[in-house]
TrEMBL record:
Name of the featured protein: HIRAN domain-containing protein
Origin: domain of life: Bacteria
Length: 309
């Protein structure tokens, strides 16, 4: 679970944002006197856009919406483990006019052509997610993601979302490029999510020694240029590889597998007349000075259930 770190307007009824997330161990529900708002249904009037789902985020305030949750899961009782929790689809509705929290993000569950309100994002997360969800809302869209319901029976129902980071929400929303971090004139700087090993540095130690960490410094940050070369030997001899340069000097290349991952992206940018660069760092090892690139996590990544409604 994270602690972080896309017509008509849906009618919104504010409710208190409370911090009583009920997953993974919903408490016993031993009294009929618990406060429970009547289910609030809203028609689906926005385009629903699937957000990246590789994360887990709690929902809070579910104790106020037990009747709604009971309706959403048709009274089913979830088991005690993940695979026994009830799969549902959540819709994230930004509420900038919420009287309790101007950063609020309401959580509804999708029921055919309508949704029902079941809680809120925790306030510290809502503040990070809401700006991008508002951008989507202004464009007639709402984000949705897979979710699961736990509890039922003699326990409160609780909800948690399969939802990635706010940055991934921006990517799904089209407001952030998953590959390009910045562009200056004709030079592209790639995103720096993933550490990628360079090979062949042993043949370029004279050049790399200029960028080696000195004294108590562990690493030296550099900017690497990416272009193409041919693999000189081995199983993939003659195939393209991404060549790594520092200050226009060759210092190694990416493996065939990493070239397959990033080659299309680098080639496409170069074909547009752009110079492709990335952040990198050097480190001293028993084998000499080595280079690690910082690259986009996965340029071909898409949500597991990418779709719109």
């Amino acid at each position: 679970m994270w602690s972080w770190f896309r017509k008509k307007k849906v009618t919104i009824t504010p409710a208190p944002v409370v911090s009583d997330a009920r997953w993974p161990s919903p408490p016993a529900c031993n009294t009929a006197d618990d406060a429970d708002d009547p289910p609030l249904f809203s028609p689906v009037v926005h385009q629903l856009v699937q957000l990246y789902d590789d994360g887990r985020v709690s929902v809070v305030g579910e104790s106020y919406y037990q009747d709604a949750l009971r309706v959403a899961v048709r009274g089913a009782v979830a088991g005690d483990d993940f695979h026994s929790h009830i799969p549902v689809t959540a819709v994230l509705v930004p509420e900038p006019d919420n009287e309790w929290d101007e950063n609020a993000v309401r959580i509804d569950l999708l029921l055919g052509q309508q949704t029902v309100k079941v809680g809120y994002l925790p306030s510290e997360l809502a503040e990070e997610y809401q700006p991008d969800l508002l951008t989507m809302h202004r464009n007639g869209k709402l984000g949705m993601c897979p979710a699961r319901v736990a509890g039922g029976g003699d326990k409160y129902y609780g909800v948690y979302l399969h939802l990635a980071s706010p940055r991934d929400t921006r990517i799904a929303n089209g407001t952030e490029d998953p590959v390009i971090a910045s562009q200056t004139d004709r030079t592209i700087l790639l995103q720096n999510d993933y550490s990628c090993t360079v090979t062949g540095e042993q043949d370029h130690q004279e050049i790399l020694s200029r960028y080696a960490p000195k004294g108590n410094i562990d690493t030296v940050s550099v900017i690497a240029n990416l272009t193409f070369c041919k693999i000189a030997k081995g199983k993939y001899q003659g195939e393209d590889a991404i060549e790594v340069q520092i200050d226009r000097h060759r210092v190694g290349q990416l493996t065939y597998a990493m070239t397959k991952r990033y080659g299309e992206i680098v080639r496409g940018l170069m074909d547009r007349g752009l110079e492709v660069t990335c952040e990198a760092f050097t480190v001293n090892t028993p084998k000499g000075v080595q280079v690690e690139l910082l690259m986009p996590a996965d340029p071909h990544r898409v949500p597991r259930h990418r779709m719109t409604r």
